[in-house]
Amino acid sequence: MRKSPFNTILSGLLIAVMTVWLAVPFGMALLWSLVDPSQAWSYPDILPPKLSFERWSLMWDSTSLPIAMFNSYSLAPMAGVGAVLLAMPTAYAFGRLEFKGKAVWQTLVLVPLIMPGFVTAIFFASLLFSMGFFARYPAILVGHVVMLLPYAVRILSVSFSLVRQDVVNAARDLGASPISVFRVAYLPVLKPGIFAAFLIVFILSIEEFALAFVVGSPDFTTIPTILYSYLGYNFIRPNAAVVALILVVPNVILMLILERLLQSANPAGISGKG
């Protein structure tokens, strides 16, 4: 079947827009990160006069980037696991039960997502400090779980709603224990949603800046706080490019994995067959 000229033009425009929107910024960030410290890149040079990995080495050896990476990549998985576990009961209620005011409660759960990050961070920090809680690492971990919990609740609510009640009833009629019922009837359907919720919280935790800055500053650093420090008053474009790539590239890979996981959710698992 031949494509119409309109579809061909539309596809070409979409590819061009995606190239400008994604490839150009990534390409510029990569070039800036490879600018050799001994020779600056400035107008009218189209390309950097000298490329090297010296900037990466300097960032690793002379800044708190290794500590920031450890903080970010240790906080994120714990925040993901915590958010998924805490979201399960609420998601089950939204996905499987009918009760008065359900739609209102579903909306209220998502309200924190519209709050500005700095507003939430300031009030959360004030609450912690008023309670005498000054340990930054656990405070930021709790903050990430609480702030990102609505994402996990929303994703898992949809997953719970896809579980077929007749499959659950059949497992119970055959004498399956509650654990076996969950493993046979629920888990195959919930698995893609659990992975999706975990990865979403993981990615957003790594990218979160406001809470890490308000609660952790100046001693506790994460990748975003270092990035914003290079984009602020002490603006150093090559250093910012290095940190930006460290922040963005793993998240892009994780998003591709997430997309793969969602596509791999087979209909047989959702229907309870197989």
From TrEMBL:
<feature type="transmembrane region" description="Helical">
    <location>
        <begin position="141"/>
        <end position="163"/>
    </location>
</feature>
<feature type="transmembrane region" description="Helical">
    <location>
        <begin position="240"/>
        <end position="258"/>
    </location>
</feature>
<comment type="similarity">
    <text>Belongs to the binding-protein-dependent transport system permease family.</text>
</comment>
<feature type="transmembrane region" description="Helical">
    <location>
        <begin position="210"/>
        <end position="233"/>
    </location>
</feature>
<feature type="domain" description="ABC transmembrane type-1">
    <location>
        <begin position="69"/>
        <end position="258"/>
    </location>
</feature>
<keyword id="KW-0472">Membrane</keyword>
<dbReference type="Pfam" id="PF00528">
    <property type="entry name" value="BPD_transp_1"/>
</dbReference>
<feature type="transmembrane region" description="Helical">
    <location>
        <begin position="107"/>
        <end position="135"/>
    </location>
</feature>
<keyword id="KW-1133">Transmembrane helix</keyword>
<dbReference type="InterPro" id="IPR035906">
    <property type="entry name" value="MetI-like_sf"/>
</dbReference>
<feature type="transmembrane region" description="Helical">
    <location>
        <begin position="12"/>
        <end position="35"/>
    </location>
</feature>
<feature type="transmembrane region" description="Helical">
    <location>
        <begin position="75"/>
        <end position="95"/>
    </location>
</feature>
<keyword id="KW-0813">Transport</keyword>
<protein>
    <submittedName>
        <fullName>Spermidine/putrescine ABC transporter permease</fullName>
    </submittedName>
</protein>
<feature type="transmembrane region" description="Helical">
    <location>
        <begin position="184"/>
        <end position="204"/>
    </location>
</feature>
<keyword id="KW-1003">Cell membrane</keyword>
<dbReference type="InterPro" id="IPR000515">
    <property type="entry name" value="MetI-like"/>
</dbReference>
<keyword id="KW-0997">Cell inner membrane</keyword>
<keyword id="KW-0812">Transmembrane</keyword>
